[in-house]
Structures are given as structure tokens and as C-alpha cells.
Specification:
276 residues, alpha+beta, Beta-Lactamase, six-stranded antiparallel β-sheet, 5 helices, 6 strands, elongated
Amino acid sequence: MERETSIGKKADEFLQLFRKGEEFTHEILKENERLRFKLAQLEEAIERSGDEAKIRLYEERIKFTEDELNSLKERFRQVEEENKDFAAKYVEVEDENNNLANLYVASYQLHSTLDFNEVLRIVLEIVINLIGAEKFSVLLIEEKTNELIPVGAEGISISDVPKVRFGEGIIGTAAKEGESYFSENIHNLHNRGSISTETPIVCIPLKIKEHVIGVIAIYSLLLQKEKFSNVDYELFNLLAGHAATAIFSSRLYTQSERKLTTIQSFLDMLKEKPRR
């Protein structure tokens, strides 16, 4: 709802800028008409005057024209600045619409299956394509051991991602507090020699309301991704919620399917006739 309100507000700003441009055009046309009328008056007055009066009228006409020209230049400069602002806002709205469309498609994909492995694969693809992450992992909380266990990774081997104690380190703290973590050096992300699975540059808790089920830990970004925009931070929050719901649902479904299969096998054994 907040995103829709934001886009609606930017659309209103777009219309206001458009109306300002339209009003300025009408003002220029009126100004041109007034100048033509004034010019006709001056020409008529010149025809009725002597040489000295004509020179004075010509000088007044030149000064008047220069003043009007300067005024028009200033107003044109103001409108040009407004147009630049309008163009920037238009690009921003277009980017947000594209990201909303991408998020809609990603959300649809996430909730289109209850297969845990398939959901995990979709999550990895979304983080690559939507966020621009190069190396990252997905860790889920194992309540029995109170640890975050890596269940998926991209750009690195999952065996290289260590388990993390809940509440310890950057990843464990993000999971415990339920708050996203962003490194202060996030704009210097292309130093590939300093990647560490224990000190990610970004940590996004996977939350269902206030309940954290895991974390997305990003260690580096793709080369073309120089920094995060405001839209990226919003996408992080939205993605974390959708991914958490999809992962949690698919996990429950997979567990229930296994239990159902076990129970069915047990019932089949009971139905078998005893051998003589």
C-alpha cells in the first residue's frame, strides 16, 4: 500500500510538472501577442514623430525588447530546470514500476510451488537477477540446535558456508534482532580479495511477521552493480517476506508429505496378511 501511495504521489508530481509546462507555453503565446501589439504601437508612433523622437523611440524599443528577452530567458531557464526534475522523476517512476513488475513475477514464482528445493532455487535466482548479488547464501534456523544452517548458496560452495550460532556474529545477530544489516563499506564492493562468509556486506532476515526463520547473507555484488538504490532497500524487505513465506510453507508441506508417506507405509504393513 505504501509503495502504491508513493507511486501515486510521483504520478501527481508528474502531472503538476506537465501542467506547469503547458501554462508556460500559454504565457509565452500571450507575451508574444502583447509584444507584437506594443511593437505596432511603437511603429505607429515612430511614423508620426521626427528624427530625434524616432531615435529616442528606437532606443526605448531596444531597451524594452532586451528586458523582455532577458525575462523570457530567465523563465525559460526555470522551466528547463523543472523539465530536468520531471525527467529524473519519470525515470525513477519507470524504474519503480519495472521493479514492481519484477517483484510480482518473482512472488508468483515463489508461491507457484510447494516443493522446497524448487522454492530455494527460485529464491537464489531472484537474489541474483533482482538484487544483483554475485556470492551469497541462504541459512535457515534449526530450532533443535539453535543454529543457522546453510541450505543454499550461489558463487561459493555450500560446504564453505559455516553454521552460525543464533545471536552470534553479524549473521546470528541479524537473525536474533530481525533487523537488516548493511556494511559501511557497501560502496566498495568490488574488492574480491576480502570476501568472508563470516562478515557479509548485507544480511536480510527472512521474516513472517516478527518471526525470523532464516537469513539471506550477501558477500559480494555483480560487477555492474556499483551500489544499492532506495528501490533496492525496499525490494530487500519485500523479497524477505515473500521468500520467508514460500520457504516456510514448502518446508511444512515437505515434512507433512514425508510423515504421510511414513504413516501410509505403516498402514500398508498392517494390512498385509501374515505369512504361514
